[in-house]
Amino acid sequence: MERRRILYSGFIAITLVLGIVIGTIVSERVTATQQPNVLTIPDPVELSNGFATVANQVGPAVVNIDVESTRETGGGAIPDQFRDFFDFFGDQAPAPEQNRPVQSLGSGFIVDPSGYILTNNHVIEGADTITIQLHDDSEYEGTIVGVDEETDLAVVKIDAGRELPVARMGNSDAVNAGDWVLALGSPFGFERTLTAGIISAKGRDVPGGRQFQSFIQTDAAINPGNSGGPLVNMAGEVIGINTAIISNTQQFAGLGFALPSNVAIDVYNQIVTGGRVTRGSIGITYDANPDPALIRAFGLDHGVVVSSVYPGGPAEEAGFQASDVITEIAGEPVIDGDILLQIVARQRVGDTVPISVYRSGDELTLNVTIADREVLFGDQRAAVQPPADSGDSETELGIRVQAITPQARSLPGGRDLRGVMIESVEPGSEADEAGLARGMIISRIVAGRENLEIASVSDFTGAMQGLESGTTIAFMVMIRNPQNNEFVNQFLPMTVP
Question: pTM here?
């Protein structure tokens, strides 16, 4: 009896300490004008009951997905180059021999009572058969309605002959780091598993991710088999689809990533109404992660610099030019490349939108008709290829230029090249640190309101004269892509020493 009292008393002490800590954290959120007279301490039992309520509300809509497929080579759905640290958690079997059956498990959730299910594309990719197990252990054959590889989402349909429970979709834009969340799914095949944690961060890019994947990060435990399951808030709303983990062991390490629900809603609606996902494009290339000094070189505090304009695309027809700086699209400020991509991609194909552009000190508004990204670019991406390897050796900025060589003009697109070729770069110079390298073509130099086209060595020499120490400038260079020998544009900023 005494032992029981000691344990019970310890529980009370722990509960009180936990309550005081939680209460202290809550009190820090209150501003000076809102300080209450009495500190309210949340009841841990009520919090626990809240978890149970959410689980009972969402759980019936969560499904287990069993996929059987025949793969020609081993490795499952995880790209080999990311296998050691980036896991799509599909609970894949060890790498099979050629043409042997493979069984994998994943999760999903019902979003329409007629049997439409949202999950990850990598869960059902290459499936010969898909078996959906519901919360009541009944099983049905699933058919693929459509997929979107860019966001790794898929819609699967079952015919249960009855209305099914659904999970309510929430607004992922409204969640914040620190919010409680619950992950539901079938890790390692253990159906109806619930784990709790918080939102660790928003807007995360992960190794191996695609352009349209900007994740919610969570420390709620997710493991192989959780993939495609819902991440829900304390209102029982789905705010994310569990998609990826980063782990050296291919198991839970506190770094889980869920695709935001708002992205999933748009993808789902397009798939079920049109059979595929359509995204807008204006036909430009740009550096998705430019050096902040690049924008300062134009005398601006935000924007995205156009590297090149796709021939015959909407941007060219609207009058866009390389080195234009896009600062606003349809009234929304463009802070970086990710925001530009998101704004343009969600525009309806065929609509005309105003785009604010900064060009040589002037602000312009160009009206652009949105094109279908897939039709315009195919498999191309709107991000410029990285620069080639640096070369060797020399001048004041550490760079020596020459006329474009006949060898360069013999490459694809070389006949239309304009500018000067970098002959050498001095190791350790400002030019070297900025990424300039032997073989690059300099076609334009930007310094504040000056936007100078470079067509000859004399043009380059003239542009360099009179630059004051400390001035931030940017070179527009054409870089040869070693995969196809074609040239692509990129801006490289540097500061005059």
Answer: 0.60
